[in-house]
Design brief:
The complex is a heterodimer.
Chain A (H helix, E strand, L loop, with lengths): L1 H58 L13 H17 L4 H15 L1 H11 L1 E2 L4 E2 L3 H6 L5 H11 L4 H18 L2 H24 L3 H15 L6 H12 L2 H17 L1
Helix pairs in contact in A: 2-3, 3-6, 7-11, 8-10, 8-11
Chain B lengths: L2 H22 L3 H36 L17 H28 L5 H18 L4 H11 L1 E3 L4 E3 L28 H22 L4 H18 L2 H7 L1 H16 L3 H6 L5 H4 L5 H5 L5 H12 L2 H14 L3
Antiparallel strand pairs in B: 1-2
Helix pairs in contact in B: 1-2, 4-6, 5-6, 7-14, 9-13, 9-14
Classes of the chains: A mainly alpha, B mainly alpha.
Chain lengths: 258, 319
């Protein structure tokens, strides 16, 4: 009997020891978990702080990086009266536009100018496509920068030139714009434009379709809403619709494959 | 102290007491009671051990293995650092375009800083002159600036002659940063061009390598231009006096005893300097410049070569 008692106590002690071991391990797990939670929280907070400050930097980034060009004598002789006239009338005739644009493109580079236009199309407050970017571009009394941007874009309405400039810079642009930014800023617009193109292409009587669209747009003042259709009508008139659709498809395909 | 540790200590105390009683007591009843108690103890201990084991297993399942708990959750709506850098890059380009706008608008307001445009023109003028270096037009330009022809008096004079010689003292400051007016007006431009060329000549003379060898080479390669430009009458009017004086003074100085030692003295005052070889001799000239000229030539170790050139010029115009 005495032996039984001894064995039982030793076994009991062993079991208590085992229980203690497991409770000790549990405690370790809990501590580890708390630590991980804390680290995760710190990381999250840091990320949020970094994001906030980056957003703020963009929001207050509407400064001017002053650029001065060393004009040659003949350049100065043509640019100066052009700018004089622009100051007084707010207008830039075609010849002036050409000269002034050449001066800026020469100094800034084609790529720089393209980047600047992409830069103007972004709303840095909301990090989205700038809602009034296009309106500003086509407004009658707009800033010189907008006028020059439009003049620059006008140079590529010719389908061959458009294709050529796209081929030249697509690699750089694809490299510069990561998928995340494409998706958040540009994708929706591109997809909408493409689906509008496909919708138009599927219509048998395109003229009737556009007549209907323009009628609705004119009578109800809904040009904004039908913009994606009328956009393609204008491209068709300029005969660059097919090239542009191929370019948009290539852009979409590139980012879908990423 | 955790609860688990308290339980362990209590168990140890319980077991020690049990053993103590077991050894001391001889009564069977006590042993039976002890057996019952240890029976209860072992049941409770097994239950406790099972509970802890179960809890541990559950936690293990829930939290997984250690160290794998730090997960970065990618968030679709959030932007990464890299994406912000991209935004910033595009924003900077847009800001640059606005910078060009500001620059162009300033031109329109005619408030563009004259200096930057003037500097561009100045650099062009100076580069043009540099490109023509040591050609016929180059020397023509240089001499025409140094020796100006006055149409009214029908005479050459030397208004900018001092640009041609560099004395240790600085050449008078050319106010290149000043406002020269609208450079599209021909008169303004011509004047500005002269100033720029003068500035170029001055810089050139200052930086020129005055080693004996270099001076001789330059003279050999360019003397034809100089002889062409200076006709005999022009030479007689503009240079003869200076050349003759320089040669005459050189001859006198070099025949004086100890002249080399004297001119080796550095920065002597004018009282001493102009007493050599004698005050009478130096004051017989209207200017003291030829003396300091030779002082500098001796110091630069190019006096014999310069003297030979001057002599050659003098002989050339003798007839």
């Amino acid at each position: 009997m005495k032996k039984a008692v001894t064995i039982l106590t030793i076994m009991g002690l062993g079991l208590v020891g085992l229980a203690y071991y497991f409770s000790f391990e549990s405690l370790k797990l809990i501590e580890q978990k708390e630590e991980d939670d804390y680290i995760n929280q710190v990381i999250l907070e840091n990320e949020m702080v970094a994001e906030e400050s980056a957003k703020e930097e963009l929001l207050y980034g509407n400064t001017i990086i002053y650029r001065s060009v060393d004009l040659s004598k003949p350049e100065y002789a043509t640019v100066s009266p052009c700018m004089n006239r622009f100051q007084s009338t707010g207008e830039l005739d075609a010849l002036c536009m050409n000269v002034v644009l050449d001066v800026v493109v020469d100094d800034f580079g084609e790529e720089g100018f393209i980047n600047a236009i992409i830069g103007s199309s972004i709303d840095y407050g909301n990090l989205a496509l700038h809602p009034t970017f296009l309106n500003n571009l086509f407004k009658e009394h707009t800033s010189l920068a907008n006028k020059l941007s439009l003049g620059f874009l006008n140079r590529y309405r010719n389908p061959d030139r458009l294709q050529k400039v796209f081929n030249e810079y697509k690699d750089v642009l694809f490299n510069n714009i990561p998928k995340g930014i494409y998706q958040k800023i540009f994708e929706q617009q591109i997809v909408e434009c493409m689906s509008a193109y496909e919708e138009i292409a599927s219509k048998n009587n395109k003229e009737a379709f556009f007549e209907g669209i323009y009628f609705k747009a004119d009578t109800q003042n809904l040009h904004g809403q039908y913009w994606k259709y009328t956009f393609w009508k204008r491209r068709a008139i300029e005969k660059n619709d097919e090239v542009l659709y191929t370019i948009l498809s290539e852009i979409k395909a590139y980012y879908n494959d990423q | 102290m955790t609860l688990a540790l308290k339980i362990v200590i209590a168990s140890v105390i319980f077991c020690t007491l049990t053993w103590a009683l077991l050894i001391k007591s001889k009564k069977k009843v006590v042993t039976a009671i002890l057996l019952a108690m240890t029976g209860l103890f072992i049941t409770a201990a097994s239950f406790y051990a099972y509970m802890e084991f179960h809890a541990y297993q559950k936690r293990m399942e829930k939290y997984g293995a250690h160290n794998s708990n730090i997960v970065e959750q990618p968030n679709e709506k959030r932007y990464s650092e890299k994406e912000f850098a991209v935004f910033q890059q595009f924003q900077e380009h847009r800001n640059s375009l606005n910078g060009y706008e500001a620059f162009l608008l300033e031109i329109g307001l005619n408030e563009m800083d004259h200096v930057s445009y003037q500097n561009t023109i100045r650099d062009q003028i100076m580069a043009n002159l540099e490109n023509e270096e040591y050609g016929e037009t180059y020397w023509n330009t240089v001499f025409n600036i140094a020796f100006e022809y006055n149409g009214n008096t029908k005479k050459y004079h030397r208004p900018n002659y001092n640009a041609m010689y560099v004395v240790p003292a600085e050449y008078e400051y050319i106010p290149l940063e000043g406002d020269y007016g609208d450079l599209n007006v021909p008169e303004n431009y011509v004047y500005f061009e002269r100033i720029c060329r003068l500035f170029y000549i001055h810089q050139k003379v200052k930086l020129f390598d005055r080693s004996a060898e270099n001076i001789t080479n330059l003279w050999k390669q360019n003397k034809s231009f100089i002889y062409t430009f200076f006709s005999k009458s022009k030479y007689d009017e503009l240079c003869k006096q200076v050349v003759d004086d320089l040669i005459e003074i050189h001859d006198t100085l070099t025949t004086t005893l100890n002249y080399a030692e004297f001119y080796k003295m550095y920065n002597v005052s004018d009282d001493v300097f102009l007493d050599f070889p004698s005050l009478e001799y130096t004051s017989s000239f209207e200017y003291s410049w030829p003396f300091s000229f030779w002082d500098r030539r001796f110091a630069e170790n190019n006096a014999p070569e310069v003297y030979a050139i001057l002599k050659e010029i003098q002989d050339h115009y003798k007839n």
